[in-house]
Amino acid sequence: GLPQAPSGAGAPIALSYELFPPRNEKAAASLWDTIRELEGTNPDYVSVTYGANGSNRGTAVELLNRLLRETTLRPLAHLTCVGNTADELSGIISELLDHGVRGILALRGDLPRDPGDGPRQGSLRHAQDLIELIRRVEQGRSALLCAGKVAIGVAAYPAKHPESPSVEHDVEVLLAKQRSGADFAITQVFFHADQYRELVVRARRAGVRIPIIPGVMPLTSLRRVRRLGVLTGVDPAPKLLDALGRAGDAAESRRVGVSATVDLARAALDAGAPGIHLYTFNEHAAALDVLDKLQLLRPARRAPAPELVQA
Ligand code: FAD
């Protein structure tokens, strides 16, 4: 299920994927092909992103509902403080719980580029405030309406959060999120396994006990790696940029990227990571390649062998 406690040695590796709500019907059709492929790997959950300003709320809720109704997948709904008032967020949280969502990734959201569009009056300031709001909404509902505790995930940063004064401050913030009721953390993308390892060491030293799951993106496209570097403020490894830049065609770029991703994920697992969260960009091929090479593809719900059917 959704990660709740640190997994001990030998525990199975948790597997999860990030999807974003499709922007049009063509994208939706291709996303559903991807969802069916990913479903075949029996992940612990799939997460659905939320536009910081709440603009894609309708398509996000629709995707979450379809995942609940039409698949065996457990969705984790991202939710952000930015762009909605606390009252609006209470309503959205209730709605998600009504639909059967049992996992929420509590985020602040990226601040709007134009400060004029800054946080609205009555909006929550930090992810920590959203965690507390989710717990209040949950407690305010009858046990019947909300069977089972809602699992709350939060963001963690192997490379410093761009607005944060230091990595130590980041860990204090992560500890505060745990105190407010976070059950697990997923990391921002990172390009050096040492950064993940050091984050975990700092966090454990500070008293963070919740699982910290590395967020890993298939590094198969130079354009995407560069863009993500800009969006997240995390500098891609120059060596990786070089190798992707030298790749002659898409197939070579994919081979280089998958291999780099596998190395990164393996190093994180060697450092004790309890799972892998793959940023899929709504595409399954590279994600499944990576998992295959990591030997993490589960033989889940595979069609029974023909001789068993006949017997
Ligand atoms: P916070 O934990 O609130 O931190 C934001 C900043 O405030 C940090 O610099 C922190 O140090 C500081 N801070 C926090 N609490 C305090 C405090 N009590 N006192 C002083 N300073 C404090 N964005 C989206 O818009 N939609 C998504 O779906 C989405 N999904 C994401 C998924 C993952 C796994 C990750 C890692 C990020 C995702 N983001 C998403 C991006 C995220 O919203 C940004 O990174 C955002 O800038 C910070 O979010 P946060 O939840 O870490 O915020």
Descriptive keywords:
311 residues, alpha/beta, nine-stranded parallel beta sheet, 11 helices, 45% helix, binds flavin-adenine dinucleotide, Methylenetetrahydrofolate reductase, oxidoreductase, FAD, Mehydrof_redctse-like
Short characterization:
The protein has 311 residues and is an alpha/beta fold. The chain has eleven helices and nine strands. Helix 4 (127-139) runs parallel beside helix 5, helix 5 (167-180) crosses helix 6 and helix 8 (238-246) runs antiparallel to helix 9.
- Percent of residues in helices: 40-55%
The largest beta-sheet arranges its strands as: 7-6-5-4-3-2-1-9-8
Oligomer: single chain
Q: In what range is the share of β-strand residues? A: 5-15%
Q: Name the poorly predicted regions.
A: none
Using DSSP, what is the number of strands? 9
- Ends distance: 33 Å
Rg for CA atoms:
19 Å
InterPro entries: FAD-linked_oxidoreductase-like, Mehydrof_redctse-like
Pathway: One-carbon metabolism; tetrahydrofolate interconversion
Catalytic activity: (6S)-5-methyl-5,6,7,8-tetrahydrofolate + NAD(+) = (6R)-5,10-methylene-5,6,7,8-tetrahydrofolate + NADH + H(+)
Family: Belongs to the methylenetetrahydrofolate reductase family.
